[in-house]
Specification:
The complex is a heterodimer of chains A (302) and B (269). Helices cover 21% and strands 22% of the residues of chain A. Chain A is α+β, with helices and mostly antiparallel strands and 302 residues long. The longest helix of chain A is centred in the first third of the chain and has 16 residues, at 2-17. The radius of gyration of chain A is 19 Å and the shape is globular. The two termini of chain A are 16 Å apart. Chain B starts with a helix and ends in a 9-residue tail after the last helix. Chain B is globular, with a radius of gyration of 19 Å. Chain B has 269 residues and is α+β, with helices and mostly antiparallel strands. The chains are: A alpha+beta (302), B alpha+beta (269).
Chain lengths: 302, 269
Amino acid sequence: MKTRILTLTLLVAVTAATSPLMAQAQKKAAPAAAAAPAGKYVPAKLTDGQPDIQGHWGDILENIASLNVEKGPLLNETAVKLGVRNYPALKMFNGFLVDPPEGLLPHQPWALERRNQAMKEFLAPSPALMDPQTRGWPNGMPRENYYSSIENGPFQILQPPGYVVFFYEIHHEFRIVPLDKRPHPGQDIKMWEGDSRGHWEGNTLVIEVKNSNDSTRYDVMGNFHTDQVVVTERWTILDKNSIDYKATIDDPKVYTKPWTLGVKMVRAKPGTEIFEYAGVEGDTAATELAPAIREFNEKKGK
Amino acid sequence: MESVVRLMTIKRAASAGVMAAAVAAVVFSAVGREASGQSAYRAPRTTDGKPDLQGIWRTMNSANVNIQDHSAGSMGPAGHGVVVGNELPYLPAALAKKKQNAAKWRTEDPYAKCFLPGVPRATYIGLPLQIVQTPGYVGIAYEYVHASRMVYTNGTKHQPDVEWWMGDSRGKWEGETLVVDVTNFNDQTWFDMAGNHHSSELHVVERYTRIGPDHMQYEATIEDPKTFSKPWKMSMLLYRQKEANAQLFDYSCFAFDHHEKGLSISLAR
């Protein structure tokens, strides 16, 4: 079990880091995260009055935000020292936080300690500190959005009257977001992707996510939340092919104040379709990467 | 540990099945008329003039236990089969494999491992599904492991070289009916706990036809020349979930054990 998780963590890091867009990440991160007021673009309207954002979308950054949302090293120092994976160009980067502007998360002291532990152990974590993504489990909100990318797993937005519906390639997840102001279910109901309720404010789709479980996190680094978290997403249409995405995380148990991350979503090329992502089912990665795991464990003296 | 998880999953599934069967018994007489008649019901239309199949639907049968007639047992409650004519035209080797599967259902059924259930099993697995429609697309979201499918009704062709748990779905409208052609399956899913199975040559044609405001006829024709000597068909009803607060939740059985042991990062000590 442990072996497989380690493997998949490596796989995630390798996949993201070898992406051709990786080199551009630094450059693109800043403008994407910068404030993006609704421009002059006038989107087409659907019969129920919604601005039309249907189609296939993804994060242009190839899910780098999913490695670390805040400013800092991309991989933990232990891993770098061991020489398991070392990406000099990405030892530090600016992260994706819009607020606080200094780019660091406002952790409660106990939460910072927990996060650091997860970061330190990320190549050989305890079951509780494992990244669910490494097991093919759902990423939760908002990570499912910025883990999606136009090249390696887009999501499709459909807008039947009264709803915005997201079908994600990643984890074959979906969200069916009603726009009729119906209340969230009772707070004893917890779900991997939470429960989403939305409304439009001009050209901005605002979604409030509650009922999240306490098992997902924001990145490989281990930044996390409790099941009391409230996520407020703002999807602001910039033009036909781009959306400014911001998610504000409010979880007083873990953070001293709410914080906001931002990425730019772009439209995938015409003809894009969602493929099947069978993460829970596919455990062949463990076999394929067994030599790397053995090497790591040997170096660790196990 | 894993066998415990599987047993718990099976127990849950069995109790859900019992409930569904009880509800079905009550409802059956009321809908019998509507279901049996080839009613000329005309469904409301979507904005692009297609029959509106949207909503939350579920079956009330025990086909997930066994798609053929079956008694109650440790797999779940008794039930009428959903196979038209009840007989399955297995080729000899495939019948032998079915028997082997049946003997190992507790551990080997992909359902016991919380894997993607395939088509048509996702329809009758015992949890609700939600259909959403826009021009060119019919999306089907399943509560069970949050499986999902996109049915393309935009005239596009099947993917050429993929093999998927849920297959590749291309649909078209024939009057009141959504006809979905599903190909590109792997050979990993089963039709039920009883071990009924298929090869990667599986070809499924589904037919979704509303027969009333709250009922939909569902048919699936199964063709698989490596497993069966001829095509055969399943037929069953889907019922609309009518509660004002009805919504899909999630059933991520692969992680139940994780949660029940409190293994979450925010709780870790």
